[in-house]
Design brief:
The chain is α/β, with parallel strands linked by helices. The chain has a domain of 110 residues. The chain contains 10 helices and 10 strands.
């Protein structure tokens, strides 16, 4: 599959959008790298009727998709490559350690920062917060912050600030209303997007998009969730909302609004929803994946 895409990549013309929610996460990660889908966009929004400790959450996570510890550059314990790196560490690394490399480049940091600010401008967002751990990783995360600051100067109408990732997690739990668009490197973005999903009711409500210059893939934050395959039990909202994101990406805003309004109505009614959206997760009136999807379709008519 990847080879086929590689062979035909040169033929891609304009934005090509493909909803993707099946297959294993490793395939999705491979697609992100192969197609240079450098931006992972994960909005987290409250819907009336969802059980949550929070209300009126409206956050967007912008995650760099191609670098950081997810770049896939690793060396096993006792491998020649690991031994070479360890020998140069001055005794700081255990001799039997496995090694992962964390690349952060100016070019890729700049393009993800510009994506975050362009998104903020296009969607009437007021603030971008860059998140990293620059007090410890001064060269890699420090570079990410430095480039984000430079890009922020090009957008005087958007407020900019920075947070260390551990503090950011606490801030999201204590006062999420203070934040808007979150800009993060790959690993932190993955973690923080799950935190944000928890604020709005869980991964079943968290859509996502992976966007590059020519191609966009849309998938829920939870990925393929193979353990729920064929059970007719999983919440379909994250998957359907990913389709809503695809419609908006294509400029089909009226259709996107119709689908999202139907989703909101079904959740607010609380009747035809999956077990995780019931007040009691053992509620026998909970419906399955297909039944909830059918209710959303009916609400659109």
């Amino acid at each position: 599959m990847i080879d086929s895409i590689r062979e035909n990549k040169v033929a891609l013309k304009g934005p090509i959008t493909t909803p993707i929610g099946t297959g294993f996460r490793s395939v999705n990660v491979a697609l992100r790298h192969e197609l240079d889908l450098y931006s992972c966009l994960r909005p987290c929004k409250s819907y009336q009727g969802v059980r949550s400790r929070y209300e009126n959450i409206d956050l967007v996570v912008v995650r760099e998709n191609t670098e950081d510890l997810y770049a896939g550059v690793e060396f096993d314990s006792l491998s020649p490559e690991a031994r070479e790196i360890i020998a140069k560490s001055g005794g700081k690394i255990n001799p039997e350690a496995a090694i992962s490399i964390k690349p952060i480049s100016p070019a890729n940091s700049r393009r993800i920062a510009k994506f975050a600010f362009d998104y903020a401008v296009a969607n009437n967002r007021k603030k971008v917060t860059a998140v990293a751990k620059a007090n410890i990783m001064k060269f890699t995360d420090g570079l990410f912050f430095r480039v984000a600051r430079e890009v922020a100067q090009e957008y005087p109408g958007i407020e900019y600030d920075e947070r260390l990732v551990d503090n950011m997690c606490m801030q999201l739990v204590q006062k999420p209303e203070n934040y808007d668009v979150l800009l993060l490197p790959n690993l932190y973005g993955d973690i923080v997007s799950d935190v944000c999903a928890g604020l709005v009711g869980g991964l079943g409500l968290a859509p996502g998009a992976n966007i590059g210059e020519d191609v966009a893939l849309f998938e829920p934050t939870h990925g393929s969730a193979p353990k729920y395959k064929g059970l007719n039990r999983a919440n379909p909202i994250a998957f359907i909302l990913s389709g809503v994101m695809m419609l908006r990406h294509l400029g089909e805003n009226e259709a996107a609004d119709r689908v999202e309004t139907a989703i909101a109505d079904v959740i607010a009614e609380g009747k035809n929803v999956t077990y995780d959206l019931k007040a009691d997760r053992n509620d026998p009136t909970a419906v399955g994946t297909q039944e909830m999807a059918d209710a959303i379709i009916a609400a659109m008519k």
